[in-house]
Amino acid sequence: FLEDTFKETTLGWVHSGTGSLSRDTTRYIKDGACMALETGATAGDKCYALKRMSLPIYKRVAVSCYFSFTSNCRYLYVGGDGLTHPSYLGLFRIMIEARYDVVNRKWQYISSAGVWADVPNGSMNLEADPDTWHYFQLNARITSAGLLIFESVICNLTTMPIGDTIPTVPDLSPQRYVFN
């Protein structure tokens, strides 16, 4: 279980893309701070926050957060990217990602076909206001064969079942072979 309230710092989080990542003490859910991720001012700008961690073997995984956004945002992305070690098969990279399409007011996810697909019953009208917080959670399960079952998306109090099996790929990155 990892909970990051950003009470002291955003240590361990990195960002990429245009924009910035900072600790915000003016708007928060608890402990007096939150992480603020702001894109640049140009349409199409993207900014990502990332914290790498290992996923448990053959377990359920949930990625959750509270978020707010403004009306000039096109998509809100939430996801997890980790490594798991399914027995003798070696390390596999597992990615699970969902996004909220602000213009079309619906949730989507990266399907087993590797493309954005609509979440079943995923239409939702979220308020675009920096002072309105929304709760979000992805739920998945890792099988003994190293498969990722994308079980559901939850936003606010609405659960949207998915049930798609997401393929995993061998992790061939150089850091796999680095030993300390």
Task: Describe the SSE topology.
Layout: E1 14-17, E2 20-24, E3 34-38, E4 47-50, E5 53-54, E6 60-67, E7 75-84, E8 92-101, E9 106-110, E10 116-123, E11 134-142, E12 148-155, E13 158-166, E14 169-170
Parallel strand pairs: 5-7
Antiparallel strand pairs: 1-4, 2-3, 6-11, 7-8, 8-9, 8-14, 9-10, 11-12, 12-13
Task: Describe, in plain words, how this protein is organized in 3D.
By secondary structure, the protein is an all-beta fold. Helices cover 0% and strands 49% of the residues. The chain has no helices and 14 strands. Strands 5, 7, 8, 9, 10 and 14 form a 6-stranded mixed beta sheet that branches. It has a 4-stranded antiparallel beta sheet with strand order 6-11-12-13, with no helix packed on it. Strands 1-4 form a two-stranded antiparallel sheet. It is globular.
Globular, elongated, flat, extended or rod-shaped: what is the shape? globular
Low-confidence stretches: 172-180
The separation of the N and C termini measures 25 Å
The topology string of helices and strands comes to: EEEEEEEEEEEEEE
Determine the number of helices (DSSP H or I, runs of at least 4 residues).
0
Q: Main beta sheet: strand number and arrangement? A: 6 strands, mixed
Assess the beta-strand content as a share of residues. Answer: over 45%
| Number of DSSP strand runs | 14
Helix residue percentage: under 10%
Let me know the average pLDDT: 75
Q: Which structural class fits the helix and strand makeup? A: mainly beta
Using only C-alpha atoms, the radius of gyration works out to 17 Å
